[in-house]
Amino acid sequence: xxxxxxxxxxxxxxxxxxxxxxxxxxxxxxxxxxxxxxxxxxxxxxxxxxxxxxxxxxxxxxxxxxxxxxxxxxxxxxxxxxxxxxxxxxxxxxxxxxxxxxxxxxxxxxxxxxxxxxxxxxxxxxxxxxxxxxxxxxxxxxxxxxxxxxxxxxxxxxxxxxxxxxxxxxxxxxxxxxxxxxxxxxxxxxxxxxxxxxxxxxxxxxxxxxxxxxxxxxxxxxxxxx
Length: 226
Hints:
Layout: H1 2-23, H2 28-45, H3 53-74, H4 78-102, E1 106-111, H5 116-123, E2 129-135, E3 146-147, E4 150-153, E5 165-168, H6 173-180, E6 189-190, H7 192-213, H8 222-225
Parallel strand pairs: 1-2, 1-5, 2-4, 5-6
Antiparallel strand pairs: 3-4
Helix pairs in contact: 1-2, 1-4, 2-3, 3-4
C-alpha cells in the first residue's frame, strides 16, 4: 500500500505549496517547480487506475494550466505566469485535489461469497478503502449479480487494473491463494482469513498459558491435610 500512501503524502505537500504560493510573492517560480514535481508523481501513480472520463478532464486541466505557467516563465513573462497562478491554478487546485483524493483509496476485491465477506466490508474505513467487487471463488451458485451495490465477478471477467488488492475472506484460504497466484501477482493478494485464524490461535494459546501461570495456588488447611 506504499504507492497510494506516497501519493497521499505528495498531495499534502502540494497543499502546503499552494498556501505558500498564496502568501509568498517572491518565490513563485521555485514553488511552481516543486508543485509540478508533485503533479507528475501523482499523474504517473494514477496511470493504471480505472479513472472516469470526467475526472481525466479535471486532471488534464490542471496540467494545461501548469503548461501555460511554465511557458510564461520560460519566455521571461514572469508577471503573466504569476497572474495565471493566482487567477487559475490556485482556485482550481481544490477541485483537482478533491478529485485526486477520491482515487487514492485502496481499491479492494473481497474474495469469497459467504456470511463473512459483507461483514468484513462493513469493518473497512471507507475513507481509506473502496470495495470495487466481490470475487466468486470458490464458486457458488448465485441468484444476484451484486451484494449491496457492489458487483460480483468471476475469475473470467475481472481485470488486474481494476483493483490494488484481493482480500481472501474464505475458509478455503490456502487453496484460494494458490489459485489466485496463477492469475495475479502475489503481492496483490492479502490472505486475511489465514492471518485472522493464525492470530486467533496465537492469542488463545497465550491467554491459556497466562491464565494457568497466574492461577492462585491451592490452599490446604490443617483440616484438609488431615
